[in-house]
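Data card: per-record layout.
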Amino acid sequence: MRRPSLLPAWLALGLVCHCALNHVAAAAVTLSTASRWIVDEGGNRVKLTCVNWPSHLEPMLAEGLNKRPVGAIAADVAAMGFNCVRLTWPTFMVTNASYSSLTVEQSFQRLNLTESLAGIRANNPDVIDMKLIDAFKSVVRSLGDNNLMVILDNHVSKPGWCCAPSDGNGFFGDGNFEPDVWVDGLTRMATMFAGIPNVVGMSLRNELRGPRQNSNDWYKYMQRGAEAVHAANPRVLVILSGLSFDNDLAFLASRQVSLSFARKAAFEVHWYSFSNGQEWASGNPNEVCARIGASVSRRALYLLDQGWPVILSEFGVDNRGGNVNDNRYYGCAAAVAADLDLDWALWTLQGSYYLREGVLDLDEVYGVLDRAWSCPRNATALRRVQALQRPLRGPGYAEAAPYEVLFHPATGLCVVRPSLTRPLELGPCGETEAWAYAERDGRLALRDSPLLCLHAEGAGRSVRLGLPCPDDRSRWRLVSNSKLHVAANASPSSGSGTGMLCLDVGADGRSVVTNPCRCLGADSSCDPESQWFKLVTSTRSVAAREMLLAQLPVKLQSSKILSL
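The structure for this 564-residue chain is written out next.
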């Protein structure tokens, strides 16, 4: 039974089916790297905005084929705006004859999954008699038919749920993780998919872990695996994971990988709320965000500054909306992802599993799709992830001089000005204003109309653009440990006392107002997400100015107007 959600208007659950969303086709490309960016053959950035789709559990078939036709699922992935799928697979599916010889029907029969098998027979009859690897290929083809790139992720060796520290799948030399067999499996998969154009990358191993893990063996075997994949399929991007459940790449700061090839390697990191226990729920959210964000940077994201792509290849939340730990984490993680304009893969697509840890048809509350695989589980949660799909900068996206976007992570919306007469509100980030922030004097102004600064009008009142600039009500500071509270001093006439007023979302879920700043101290019981805004750098063309100019009389459109 799902707990009822008592969320405010700006984070209400969206339970309406709306799979027919806009999407931009992502043609099959050959990827390489240019410093921290992943680029295509022309040197233009390709931002990976993927969703995970497991195929590594005991049945060894992509989840959900008992619920919907594979083509329909692939079409939904594309319609939701993702451009790629991180498709998982177990080593033994291609190296162990007792698994690789099985057909889909035999695999499900041995597990007594009769209901799931009946569903597959009804929705995907063509795969029933296929060998497991051929069914896997058919999923890849369906994704390609929908212009979706694929990253093949070696998730485990022995098929099953991942991960536990001592499950035999954790590190080189574990009971089910023999290095030679692993390299053989990587080589077989790289060779098998060398001619499939939408397979653009291979992730060498998911979440290395356990008591045997150490950096010396990491270098020895991960470099060997990378070389094997590149030799068999030099077209794909090779993706290397770290230690401690892919939370730790810090050891690379003192010794980088040594590979015979260049511009074809990237790293990946995972980040969940539960990676830090219940710290998000039990601590002050601003302090926790600052501390954990800095830790993720020290352990992995620092590699961006060293000229390596880092893919956030697993992150996600309980989409029912009532998990405080997840809700606080997401605003912080999304702010980091937007700020760094990260490539990423959301966990996860599936609304259910054939079999997970002995449970039939287990509901996956982290799933984008509902249990029937027919609609988004939570339309609001999907929308805020979709806000991270649009590239903000990088090779090929120098469309404008750098400017700031006021991004609201909890909703996935940005501060926009819908018209010359209406106040600022939250709206699609593609329609954002171009802001310029001067930290020295606190000026937050329109870049193209620098005489207009953002002003606080008082508690519960909409912010406005105006003069003079700056005065006390238009000097904005990033005041919390998380640097996500954008605050101005309250004037005595504002009715707010003499404290600080922070940007906030109004009761209607769309207007941008100021309210007394919350959660700046050590209080762990308050939730600051509605007041979290992130100043994010973009070089994309600014649609907002053209939209506003179009509202002016024709005579004025041709004039040079410094201030609208």
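Known properties of this structure: The chain has a mean pLDDT of 91. The radius of gyration is 25 Å.

See the next section for split statistics.
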